[in-house]
């Protein structure tokens, strides 16, 4: 009985703090559902950063110049870093990174649908920066105000780096658009292929999003999926015009009354298919991650053996004690 009363009081205190925009920290009491939702979202986000290295990594050895190669290498490396900050944030909630990695390679946890599409030409690298990182920024800047402290703080640094990523993509596309007709065609073709999958990154429409309402109430998410999708479209259409490409949506037009762009309906059955493992590259992405994890096994074992040796040495008798 006392326990129930205590739980109710704790719950009320928690909700009051969240409503007052106070940050929740790892040692604070939190409802189990809040903890689980955060682990789910942060793990999915971390996995997306790690799997997201693959489509771009595909072009590292074929970048058209040393400058483009250095830029791409730095970007892919940043993504590994983002994954690590996010796994660390998840670990503050009592889960283990090794356990999360197992769930990724056993496909028990998701990663963003966007990384299940192939990168067919170097223009895809520019379009990923422009559209995919652009969508990521729209989605992630509000997460800097997420109620969970370690997640919100990780997002601050990630967003700073994402802005660089977005600009490098746009700069690459600008350069290609000033090039040959073939280069301009490559940019248009990549834009046509990545536009709809980028809109799907924001998740299903609000009416079909089982998690949004509770995540908004807990201030884990600060905007709904549809709000962010609209923001992204409003931000991106003028950028497409400045670049000189068209977006593959005949319904796209500015609505003076709403003060926003109207746009067509993404193919939600495609999103469902890709999320459930049946996208163009799902199998390849997970297989590659599993293989990399297996190849790294000896490094993990060696590091663990070294740490055990160090620990045994520091807890054993000192050399001074032995000589006495
Ligand atoms: N792909 O109730 P909903 C990056 C799932 S990394 C796959 O709306 P929620 C970058 C969803 O998880 C980009 N799954 O969910 C990296 C849920 O399934 P479960 C990653 C999706 O969580 C490298 C179900 O569908 N960004 O930018 O309220 C290079 C129902 O959805 C997707 C983040 O992770 C999807 N697109 O909202 C370049 C940001 N959409 O878990 C760039 C943080 C939905 O119930 N995450 N699902 O089985 C979020 O903001 C939210 O988790 C989402 C979904 C908006 C994605």
Automatic annotation (TrEMBL):
Stretches the record annotates as Disordered: 276-324
Comp. bias (Low complexity): 302-312
Biased composition, class Basic and acidic residues, residue ranges: 285-300
SUPFAM superfamilies attached to this UniProt entry: Ferritin-like (SSF47240)
Pfam (any one): PaaA_PaaC
Composition skew (Polar residues), residue ranges: 313-324
Protein known as: 1,2-phenylacetyl-CoA epoxidase subunit A
